[in-house]
Amino acid sequence: MFNASNADDAPQPPKVLTTPLEIAANLRALQEANDPLIITFHERSQRFQSFLVEVDREGGRITLDEMIPRDGERFLQAGEPFRIEGFHDGVRIAWESSEPLTIDDASDGRCYRGALPEEVIYHQRRNAFRAALKLSQLVDVTLDGDKLKGKGAITGKLLDISATGCKLRFAGDIAERLQLGQVYEKFEAALPFGKMSTPVELRYLHYEERLNTTFTGLRFHNMSGLVQRQVERFVYQLQREARRFDQDDY
Question: Long-range contacts of range 89-93, CB-CB < 8 Å, 24 or more positions apart?
Fold first, then answer.
């Protein structure tokens, strides 16, 4: 049944930004939020992660952090065209480049320098409410599948969840066992009212050495209607608890 809230949440058509002011402002939002970027090279399936470390509108330049994994540099050096994609507050920000990036061993680390893009795709996606779990109520999760490197499933904790994806934490450095963009067919979460299971796509991967913890962001992939309802029920429950907590503060 159609209702107004469905219309409000519907995805908006993508816009093409062409002015340096608009482009720099949106890239700077990615930079300041430290949002991860996915780099893909044309006709190659492997994905690489990076971050924006500098946006210079006046100079018409941008600087990217070292790619993970670093072997993607050989495609840069070969001059292969590539696409960069990031997400900020539910907005997809993406651009393509056929101009080579210059590899620079700066004093504070390896980076890549290039021209500010001439066009950027700005696409407002569905605004899915993301609910965070209290530290005392973190849910146990398991990630497994044929594409998982090494032996055995990985177990961790659910940090937050929305209708479209979730964020997890795992003890130790498990980054070598995972690949950005890969779909893992078995993700399980022990929700309070029953276990949910669905395939997921890995969209974010970061090992925090200081905490000896790996953080991942997953997007639900081809979810069944039953699991979708489980997720929506859990998100609603967390949202209701958060609202009640806010009211108790007054």
Answer: 89/29, 90/124, 90/125, 90/126, 90/127, 90/128, 91/26, 91/122, 91/123, 91/124, 91/125, 92/14, 92/121, 92/122, 92/123, 92/125, 93/26, 93/27, 93/29, 93/30, 93/120, 93/121, 93/122, 93/123
